[in-house]
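Check out a protein:
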Amino acid sequence: MKRRYLIAIAVVVLLVFALGALPSLLRSGDPYRAHAEETAGPEGVEPVAAENLSERRYRYVTAAIADGESGRYWKGPVGLKGAFTHSPFDELDAIRSQHPEAVDGDAVYVTENGTVYRVTVEREDG
């Protein structure tokens, strides 16, 4: 009896892990990237310092600042994937809520080494 409970608990734990990992492996839907371009920045916007953005928490934004664009993120066709995965949309939303002074429209402004970057998420064509 005890063995059956342990097996059932192990199966449930494995299913939960699979549900958490599987969506990030799916490559369906439209591909998106975070794009960063150098700019003077609009007046009244105070860019957030890149040093305040952790590379682990803001991997799409920091990659875009370093290389001009981040790696791809596939937004699933149903929208279920977004509930289980980390996306560039999440990162921009977090910056918008934590640093509203760095926002102008759909872009956030980040400064690194005296250079101001306009960071947006754009759908990749093709």
